[in-house]
Amino acid sequence: MNDARTAILERVRGALHGTERAAAPVPRDYRTNPARRPVRPDLLDLFVERVEDYRARVHRCTPAEVADTLATVLRRRRTVVPDGFAWPVPQPVPGAGLTAAELDRIPAVVTTATLGVATTGTLVLTHGEGQGPRAFSLVPDVHVCVLPADRVVLGVPEAVAALDPHRPQTWISGPSATSDIELDRVEGVHGPRELHVLVVT
Amino acid sequence: MSRTFLGTPAFPEAARAALADPQLRRNLAHATGTIRGKRAAVVSELEETGEWEQLRLAGAAIKDQTLLHLDEHLVALEESLVAAGAVVHWARDAEEACAVVASIAHGHGFDEVVKIKSMATAEIGLNEALAAEGIAAWETDLAELIVQLGDDLPSHILVPAIHRNRAEIREIFLREMAGAGRPAPDDLTDEPARLAEAARLHLREKFLRAGMAVSGANFAVAETGTLVVVESEGNGRMCLTLPEVLVSVVGIEKVVPTWADLDAFLQLLPRSSTGERMNPYTSTWTGVTPGDGPQEVHVVLLDNGRTRALADEVGRQALRCIRCSACLNVCPVYERTGGHAYGSVYPGPIGAILTPLMRGVGEDEQVDSLPYASSLCGACYEVCPVLIDIPSVLVDQRAQVVDARRGQVSHVGEAAAMKGAAWAFGRASRLGAVERATGLAGKFLGRRRVDPGGRGVVSRLLGPGGAWSEARDLPAPPRESFRAWWRRTNGADT
Ligand code: SF4
Question: Boundaries of each LUD domain copy (chain A) (predicted)?
């Protein structure tokens, strides 16, 4: 395959031969546009509104209310709990070492999120402490995500700037969905069909 | 296995066949109309602030800068990927790329792989190539599943089963699922939610047992070696997460220089594509992460005609394309003919330039007819999130087709060819006026085009293709007079 490498790089250079290759600056004013502020005074309100737009369920609570809210949402469902997840749940299943097939038999999972993105209503998981490997928030049918309010940023530029590309990331905007059948939106194909977000203020 | 596009008739004849299918036309009109409405709503949010235009300019500039230094970025991407634990392969063409994927599967003794919808793997005919090697490739995107089970061809980049309605999908599932794995439930209705549930159960079995997945990538970050897949259903996450081995086939134009560059594209793509502020799931991964996801990660960097397109100074901008499919949904030709008529995995306006750019003109009638599969109304350019001037590239490609075919056949005379061209462009500019009057480019919401006016447009649209198909064996008019004529008539009508 080394031949292919050499050949492709040569073709690229050949294709660009005679083309002015001087670097031109990329205009980045989309990041600093003065209109880029929450359309409402409260960033959090915007985040909540946009998450609800995807028909995910948002629960606002104080740190002291997290455990009760989790219990209400999860009911008696068995729940995968990743290492480092700080709150108690009614029916915990320790996440460490679970295979995909085992995950498939557990109805719910709790995780934290690294960031919330207000303008798009997105949760970003980076799969460290409190979040577990990528399969955790994917295979069970109910995903309950706890997000401290101070982790909500304005938009995609702020999120990208804050994230470490060397960590695997999952950006979640509402429950999984398809519009493949006559453009009718159906929530829940392969990912969790139910998404709850606990915003902790 | 899905059929390939080999032997598809040239666009005009294929389009005529598609136009004769009223069900297909209804489905397409509904689908493209719905997506246009959703897109217009979320794009206008950013248009009001001026961000959309700023994002488009940035997106186009990033891609242009990358293409002008593609060799350097590819070498950097390779280095970052290797440093992150990935194995990098290079493939000059479809055959080499398919051979790489097959040999990885064989090396592990796998006789099946799960797949995420990907234009690159469709382009190289990977499923057929793997089948020939005794490896089953299971499509896991709902629409692709419908297409694959129906032994059909995808008709749209974004919603490949747009030509099937719910009743047809139910029948395909009931008939074909059992032969491919877990059968559909007997009491399956044509409710979209029930159909999606049947697909969920059918495919979950495959996700849990698959040892290897094959994906494409929407972006590949040179600086870090990060790959990005943008999706809706979660089948992508399943494929990228559960199997031990992951192979991603990535066109060399997918590279972006830095992680930070993604902040433009992750705004442009979902809004322009599915008409959402953000698509449900975006996955990024950088090589191998111990204890999380695939522990063997391969990336196949694919040329397959991209360097040929890069060499075309007018056409190379087509390589900026982020495959959002917005240009398809605003195209009056596409709305009426669907994707099959283009005879390529890349349908619609972008396909009409990308296919001839990647494959070259003057050899294949089907390819040569594509630059004519347009009315040059300009709606595609208006929506393109990376500002690809498709109409200008189409005109340039037409000139190249004419050049390539010059002197190929007899001498019936310039006048006859010119007559065909005049017919086409005369109607094309008139069509542009019709589209502007009905607000195609601006206000998409609630528009239902089953009106007689719509039909009138269609019959006129078919004309240019028909005229071309009759005229294409004639000697071509000289390039200069063609262009002079084009400038004059275009100027007169607009
Ligand atoms: S050409 Fe532009 S509008 Fe069409 S699919 Fe590509 S990026 Fe989207």
Answer: 105-200
State how far residue B284 is from chain A, nearest Cα, in angstroms: 5
Q: List the domains of chain A with CATH numbers.
A: 42-200 (3.40.50.10420)
CA B249 to chain centre: 15
Q: Give the tokens for residue B267.
A: 């705004």
pLDDT of residue B434: 31
How far apart are alpha carbons B351 and B5 in whole angstroms? 13
Asked if A181 lies within 8 A of B282 by C-beta distance, the reply is no
B278 assigned to some structural domain:
yes
3-state DSSP assignment of residue B125:
coil
Host domain of residue B459 = 427-490
Last residue of a domain, one of B250, B280, B306: B306
Instruction: Output the pLDDT for position B444.
Output: 27
Q: How many residues does chain B have?
A: 494
Answer with the one of B306, B331, B352 that is the final residue of a domain.
B306
**Of A21, A28, A29, Cβ closest to residue B68:** A21
B267–A156 CB contact, under 8 Å? yes
Structure tokens at A6: 């050499």
**Cβ partners under 8 Å of residue B188, min gap 6:** B170, B173, B174, B194, B195, B198
Is B297 part of a structural domain of the chain? yes
Chain B: residue nearest A23 by CA?
Answer: B65
Measured in Å, residue B269 CA sits from the centre of ligand 1 at: 9
In a domain, B401, yes or no: no
What is the side-by-side strand order in the sheet with B296-302?
B87-91, B296-302, B245-251, B212-215, B112-115, B136-139
Q: What is the model's pTM?
A: 0.85
CATH assignment of the domain containing B283 = 3.40.50.10420
pLDDT at B62: 98
Q: Tens digit of pLDDT for each residue in B388-432?
A: 999 999 999 999 999 998 866 533 333 333 333 333 333 444 333
CA-based nearest residue to B138, from B211, B219, B227, B230: B211
The verdict on B165 and B298 lying in the same domain is yes
pLDDT tens per residue across span B204-245: 999 999 999 999 999 999 999 999 999 988 999 999 999 999
ipTM: 0.95
Structural domain count, chain B: 2
Question: How far B30 CA sits from the closest chain A CA (Å)?
Answer: 8
